[in-house]
Design goal:
This protein is mostly helical and 83 residues long. It is built from 3 helices and no strands.
Length: 83
């Protein structure tokens, strides 16, 4: 009985270990495949920050009047009632 329990434990732990190794290798493969894309994105970001540094310092004002929100909600509710 104890021997069967140990066998079951070893098989279970081995299957978990194999699954984790599969997940790790797939993550590493994705990292290798997307390496060029991420390098290009970092270069683009650095270039845009160097070319226009004042653009990132100011935060635009995105205030929308309450009437616009009320009209959007009314339109959404009327669309959902008919469908």
């Amino acid at each position: 009985m104890v021997l069967e329990g140990l066998k079951l434990m070893i098989v279970g732990m081995a299957s978990v270990m194999l699954f984790l190794l599969l997940v790790i290798t797939s993550i590493e493969l994705i990292k290798i495949l997307t390496r060029n894309f991420s390098i290009n994105q970092e270069k683009l970001l650095l270039f845009s920050r160097k070319s226009n540094s004042r653009k990132y310092n100011s935060v635009p004002n995105f205030e929308v009047p309450i009437e616009v929100f009320a009209a959007a909600i009314a339109n959404y509710e009327s669309d959902n009632i008919t469908s």
